[in-house]
Amino acid sequence: MRVTFLGTGSAMPTGERYQSATLLRDDDRRLLVDCGAGTLQRLQQSGVGYEAVATVLLTHHHLDHVADLFPLLKARWLAGEEHLTVVGPRGTKALVDGLFEVHDYLDGRIDVSIREIASGEHVISGFDLSAREVRHSKRTLAYRFDDRLTLSGDTEAFEGLADFADGSAVFVHDCSFPDDVDVDNHPTPTELGNVLSGHEYGRVYLTHLYPHTDGRHDEMLDAIAAQYEGEVRFAEDLMTVRVS
To answer: Does the model's pTM come out above 0.90?
Structure first.
């Protein structure tokens, strides 16, 4: 599996970090997890392109995770593609239906399939995965792909999620702010390090980074390392990680 971080930023994107999106590739299978603003540009820059992405898996429905969903739909229609599948937690159908009410000229342009899922085992676009609800201000699902990859979505750090991801070769976790920012629904580095302690992952990548983290990466890594001894890195836009 190849994991490409298309967007590692947040609701306050920077020139270096677009909003949330991750592309999974395994043989001829493609799965886009989240579709925040800038996803279409990053898909083109990655060499994959929006024509090759027919399924979007949403962690939740905050704007910085869905802003490019209908731009993706329109681009696929204009490129002559015939379908798009959107999968996500409860409320995904209402989200897509509401967007069609606003952008009614797109209704019927391509075949759109909507699937709502909950915690449990699923097969999506040929990928076997487990879903688990996490702790955020809106219903959010984390996803685990066998022992290869776990994506936290937006969430606080908590033991249940750390257990869910235990043994993953790659664990991608929200770490939105440094320690001196008072925040709910996202973890700080010390909070994350405390929860990761005692678990084993091949490598942890930090993502969903607000501009507050700029210039403070070493400090944040040190805070995590005070509790967790494993390898931790910052994800970067267009970085690709191979996971076996």
So the answer is: yes
